[in-house]
Specification:
Helix content: 55-70%
Shape: elongated
Largest sheet: none
Radius of gyration: 53 Å
Number of helices: 11
Length: about 325
């Protein structure tokens, strides 16, 4: 009945659970242990060592962050000026070196350009190559095929002239009165092989290389005569130095083997004539697509003549001679 003696309307007694003697004893012992424990001491690592170093005894200094000092505007301007002067000196040194090399090239008379590679002769040979030829480097890719076909036609032309010389020699062994044909066949081989290369192959090569109207017209003019010559050689007019159809048929009654050999050469001449007509039409078709014209050919010819050093020296010599004659007359 003691519970009923208390006043329920009275203020409750404030009871602090943390003031309990048992709780206070535990908390005080824990705080003291924490204050005396230093994990960075040797005793903290060794459990058998009862000696501890209080944290308060350790000395530590705060880290100091040093402020960076920016360079002054005057120092920046001085460094930039020094850098510019150094670059200017380097450029002047390179320009002087280039000028020196250019003067050396001019003094030696060196010509800038690729080294000639045709005809492909051995290095120990006393005669050096006379032309430079490279289809992949100098000829546009759309003209590779026709330019190489012209080159193969020229080689076929040389082989045909060589076989014609042998056929005329065989004909001369059978008929001693055909010495003129054999002599002319030798002349045609020696003369027309390099002449064909210079007169119609090189012009068409240079025409496709630089889109030159003058070289196109020069090629058409010379190659038209070459087609006529092929036709005459395939016919084989006697005493003209050609083993054509007429000359080979005339030898059938004398020697069959020589006649067959001469017919083979006549067939080579016929194939050369047919191929030359086909290639002439191909080159003409490509020429019409390049935009070349007779007016451009005239301009190229006049420009080439005026800028030619031989023509300039001859013109200056003639002018000086005429001036001296006029002065002497006066």
């Amino acid at each position: 009945m003691s519970g009923f003696d208390e006043n329920p309307f009275a203020d409750p007694v404030e009871v602090n659970p943390f003031k309990d003697p048992s709780v206070t004893q535990v908390t005080n012992s824990t705080i003291d242990g924490i204050q005396e424990f230093n994990p960075f001491s040797a005793g903290g690592l060794d459990q058998n060592n009862d000696t501890t170093i209080p944290i308060s005894e350790g000395s530590s200094q705060p880290a100091v962050l040093q402020t960076s000092q920016e360079p002054s505007p005057k120092a920046t301007a001085t460094a930039a000026q020094a850098n510019l002067l150094r670059q200017q000196e380097e450029l002047e040194r390179k320009a002087a070196e280039l000028e020196r090399k250019e003067q050396e090239l001019q003094s030696r008379g060196a010509t800038i350009g690729p080294e000639n590679n045709w005809p492909p002769l051995p290095k120990f040979f006393p005669i050096k190559p006379c032309f430079y030829q490279d289809f992949n480097e100098e000829i546009p890719i759309e003209y590779h095929r026709v330019t190489k076909m012209m080159y193969y036609l020229w080689m076929f032309h040389c082989v045909t002239l060589f076989l014609n010389m042998l056929a005329c020699l065989a004909h001369f062994t059978v008929d001693s009165g055909r010495g003129v044909d054999f002599g002319l066949a030798i002349l045609w081989f020696i003369l027309f092989s390099p002449a064909a290369f210079i007169c119609w192959y090189r012009p068409v090569y240079k025409a496709f290389k630089s889109d030159s109207s003058f070289n196109f017209f020069f090629f058409f003019f010379i190659f038209s005569f070459q087609v006529i010559v092929y036709i005459i050689q395939s016919v084989g007019i006697p005493s003209w130095g050609n083993s054509g159809w007429i000359a080979s048929i005339a030898v059938i009654g004398t020697n069959i083997a020589v006649a067959v050999f001469m017919m083979v050469v006549a067939g080579f001449f016929t194939v050369s004539a047919v191929l030359s007509v086909i290639l002439l039409k191909m080159v003409h078709g490509m020429y019409r697509r390049t935009g070349a014209s007779f007016q451009k050919a005239q301009q190229e010819f006049s420009t080439g003549v005026v800028t030619n050093k031989t023509f300039q020296s001859a013109a200056s010599t003639a002018a000086s001679t005429a001036a001296q004659n006029a002065f002497q007359r006066n």
